[in-house]
Amino acid sequence: MSTEPTDKNRATAAAILPLVGGPDNVTSIAHCMTRLRISLRDRSLVQDEALRALPAVLGVVEDETYQIVLGPGAVARVTPEFEALVEEGRSAAPPAAAHPVTADELAAQGAALKEAQKTRNATPFKLMLRRIANIFVPLIPALIGCGIIAGLNGLLMNLGWLPGVVPALAAIASGFMSLIAVFVGYNTAKEFGGTPILGGAVAAIIVFPGVAKITAFGTELRPGQGGVLGALAAALLAVYVEKRCRRLVPEALDVLVTPTLTVLISGLVTLFGLMFLAGEASAAIGTFADRLLSTGGAFAGLVLGGLFLPLVMLGLHQALIPIHTTLIEQSGHTALLPILAMAGAGQVGAAIAVHCRLPRNGSLRATIKSALPAGFLGVGEPLIYGVSLPLGRPFVTACVGGAAGGAFVGLFNQLGIAFGSTAIGPSGWALFPLLDGTSSLGVTVAIYAGGLLTGYLVGFAATYFFGFTRQMLTDLNTDPDPDAPDPVTGPPKEPALA
Q: Which residues are listed as membrane-spanning (predicted)?
């Protein structure tokens, strides 16, 4: 069997490691859909420009953790290789010789930590949103896989093809969603410092069929009532109860008493309080989304599509995952995601305009060429952090393109042609297989494609005509690219033969 893919991923990890300060500078490693996230001891050891220059690196992001954008698929393969290299480097490193720490060294370390803290600006609100996002991000691969299978199943059912396969595909697509509350509970307890399996056990109560025999607040409960929001609340309560028990229960009884009290207390509160309250909250989210798009779809799409890029820039877009997941639980799709995806279309249009307006800036044009394929597939970070955001104005005009595309899609929701995505994660062209709605598949695809085209065109036009000042064009169009035509004289002439 060929080892070329593994060698390629290991080579990428090996190229990244020394540029982030080596194994001893890495304190933790994780990844999301597109980014390798690492915590660092000393931020000053990182070579940002050298990292950006690596072919496999699409961009870097400074946040609570240092984030290296590798793209979907690649990050899941590079991360384990990176973890292995860090472990190998630590075990092979000779013990450092002890030496006294001077006051100047301590002062320098303190100044570096202070600057890093100032840079991160880790407010409690942002930290909480990131922790909630960390609960749902690991679920995205399963949501994507099951969502695509659900879309395929719906297509086969509408066409009347393979009737014997349709029930099997329905079971495969629905199995994960029927138990997603358990996975949310497990990840919640893990993220907030509790025992993961206890969080999952408490959340499992929500999907247990026997809850239909229980009455709370004067109504009979329904299996699954409260969904992921109820699971999140139940697991948070379980973590709190478990931590209290760990402090109060004698050590000799801890292994018996703590799990029992955690599941019992949290379970009772979940059954006779949280399921009902979370169910009401989930219903309110669904009702609000429906009314928002059915009554003010064009304006709502304008606002949502225009503001999504700043959320991505701040890393806060993942906080929307619980809302998307709740909508998918209720109606089978989230109507918000196709609208938010228009922000990426505006970004692509803006990047193409930058490419056209700066024919002599070879380095920036090369960055755009390498990042555009990912941009068409909905991975916007390389274009955001490598092109539009550093330039300033093109970031704003990209948001204008996203707003126009969002208004286009929102308008059709307002006209009664509602549709959404059966899963979360993909965007751009990658969202086509996940589209589902009240109209035919052809109409749904046509409207979404029309929104993307609107975003591309408006993002391009806004950036081409308003994305640069004269001074910007003068300053930025000075890196000669021998392959680029001169904007005045045209393509370079061939040298005359002697």
A: 135-155, 161-185, 197-218, 224-241, 253-278, 298-323, 335-354, 374-391, 403-425, 445-466
32 catalytic residue (yes or no): yes
Q: Domain ranges in the chain?
A: 4-94+108-114, 134-286, 306-476
List the structure tokens of 234: 């139940």
C-alpha 295, offset from chain centre = 29
Per-residue pLDDT of the chain (498 residues; tens, 9 = 90+): 445 566 888 889 999 999 999 998 898 888 877 788 898 888 888 998 888 888 888 778 877 788 898 877 788 889 889 998 988 887 765 554 444 443 344 344 444 544 444 455 456 777 787 788 889 888 888 888 888 888 888 788 877 888 888 899 989 988 998 999 999 999 999 999 999 999 999 999 999 999 999 999 888 999 999 999 999 999 999 999 999 999 999 988 999 999 999 999 999 999 999 999 999 999 999 899 889 888 888 999 999 999 998 887 776 777 788 899 899 888 889 999 999 999 999 999 999 999 999 998 887 888 888 889 888 988 877 788 778 888 889 999 999 999 999 999 999 999 989 899 988 877 899 899 889 888 888 899 999 999 999 999 999 999 999 999 888 888 888 754 444 444 434 444 443 333
Query: What's the gap between Cα 449 and its chain centre?
Result: 22
> Identity (one letter) of the amino acid at 400?
V
Beta strand pairing call for 215-216 and 35-40: unpaired
Q: Which one from 32, 146, 245, 399 is the annotated catalytic residue?
A: 32
Q: Which position has the token pair 């899963």? A: 423
Residues near 271 by beta carbon (within 8 Å), at least 6 away in sequence: 205, 211, 214, 216, 221
Domain 4-94+108-114 homologous superfamily, CATH: Glucose permease domain IIB (3.30.1360.60)
The answer to whether the Cα torsion of 365, 367, 373, 376 is positive or negative is negative
